[in-house]
């Protein structure tokens, strides 16, 4: 039996891929969330400042509007442990910028171009992510 | 025009992340929990996203320029460098710990409460720490 989450996953995935296609064919840029946000916060993306701000505006506003008008709520199940939030946030931001990309840039846009760097990055972060859940959930029991 | 394209793309990205369940930290951690109660949903998300994107790359590489006239980004040199390997490992560790990556953390800002804001601020700090870290000799010198 196919679970409902698989259908929503594939459907949402198609919309994510469509977003990347619009960004690439429209603006000639690779859609990577950490790159778009990172270039804004560290000032390296000053020449494309407006693109970045508007992309982020849509990224935050569209889910908010969709939830507001549909009257639905979205489950985030986010932890309330401030230490975990801060440590994880710093690791995610630092790692993605060091690697020049995250799940969207390396994962979606890199794999689909059969980029060796994108595929390698995805293998590394999936292994590290699996190890992280193993250690923090099953060994240390903190998440 | 560029602005409208950016806003449209960002909006679609946010909706896709919401629909797919990428904003649900339980789903992400379930996908990474291969030794526990494994949730394969994210494979469908990635598969679904790669389809239109692969088609877009085919079109892009044939057309050479984007709609606004800018060139299609060249393929980066296909070398697996230290910053790519170590950065991805650090990123993965944080992704597993909280179940959030950069896109979903921003997409969820309007409904993830104070926790979402704390994570996003910490992530921005991490991005700023990456600037001097990347200049370290260890990363700038050679391949992994």
Shape of chain B: globular
Structural class by secondary-structure content of chain B: mainly alpha
Helix content of chain B: 55-70%
- Helix vs. strand class of chain A: mainly alpha
Order of helices and strands of chain B: HHHHHHH
Describe this structure in words.
The complex is a heterodimer of chains A (143) and B (144). Chain A is mainly alpha-helical. Helix content of chain A is 73%, strand content 0%. Chain A has six helices and no strands. Chain A has helices at residues 4-27, 33-41, 49-70, 82-98, 103-111, 116-139. In chain A, helix 2 (33-41) packs across helix 3 and helix 5 crosses helix 6 (116-139). The longest helix of chain A is centred in the N-terminal third of the chain and has 24 residues, at 4-27. Chain A is globular. The mean pLDDT of chain A is 96. The N and C termini of chain B lie far apart (41 Å). The model of chain B has no long low-confidence stretch (mean pLDDT 95). Chain B has two domains: 1-75, no CATH class; 77-144, no CATH class. Chain B has 144 residues and is an all-alpha fold. Chain B is 69% helix and 0% strand. Chain B contains seven helices and no strands. The longest helix of chain B is centred in the middle third of the chain and has 23 residues, at 41-63. The chains are: A mainly alpha (143), B mainly alpha (144).
Name a few traits of the molecule:
heterodimer, A: 143 residues, mainly alpha, B: 144 residues, 7 helices
Map the helices and strands.
The complex is a heterodimer of chains A (143) and B (144).
Chain A: H1 4-27, H2 33-41, H3 49-70, H4 82-98, H5 103-111, H6 116-139
Helix pairs in contact in A: 2-3, 5-6
Chain B: H1 2-20, H2 25-32, H3 41-63, H4 82-98, H5 102-107, H6 113-134, H7 137-140
Helix pairs in contact in B: 2-4
């Amino acid at each position: 039996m196919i679970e409902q989450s698989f259908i929503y996953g594939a459907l949402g995935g198609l919309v994510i891929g469509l977003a990347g296609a619009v960004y690439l064919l429209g603006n000639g840029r690779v859609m990577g969330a950490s790159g778009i946000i990172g270039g804004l916060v560290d000032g390296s993306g000053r020449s494309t400042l407006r693109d970045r701000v508007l992309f982020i505006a849509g990224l935050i506003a569209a889910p908010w509007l969709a939830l507001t008008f549909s009257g639905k709520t979205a489950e985030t199940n986010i932890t309330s442990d401030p230490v975990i939030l801060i440590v994880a946030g710093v690791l995610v931001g630092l790692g993605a910028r060091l690697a020049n990309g995250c799940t969207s840039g390396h994962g979606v846009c890199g794999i689909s171009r059969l980029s060796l760097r994108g595929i390698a990055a995805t293998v590394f972060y999936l292994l590290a992510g699996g190890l992280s859940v193993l250690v923090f959930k099953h060994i240390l029991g903190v998440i | 025009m560029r602005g409208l394209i950016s806003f449209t793309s960002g909006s679609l990205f946010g909706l896709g992340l919401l629909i797919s369940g990428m904003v649900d930290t339980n789903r992400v951690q379930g996908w990474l929990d291969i030794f526990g109660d494994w949730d394969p949903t994210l494979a469908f998300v990635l598969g679904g996203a790669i389809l239109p994107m692969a088609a877009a790359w085919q079109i892009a590489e044939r057309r050479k320029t984007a709609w606004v006239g800018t060139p299609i980004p060249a393929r980066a040199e296909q070398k697996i460098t230290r910053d790519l390997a170590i950065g991805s490992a650090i990123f993965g560790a944080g992704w597993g710990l909280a179940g959030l990556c950069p896109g979903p953390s921003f997409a969820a800002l309007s409904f993830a409460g104070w926790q979402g804001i704390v994570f996003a601020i910490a992530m921005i700090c991490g991005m700023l720490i990456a600037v001097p870290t990347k200049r370290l000799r260890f990363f700038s010198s050679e391949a992994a």
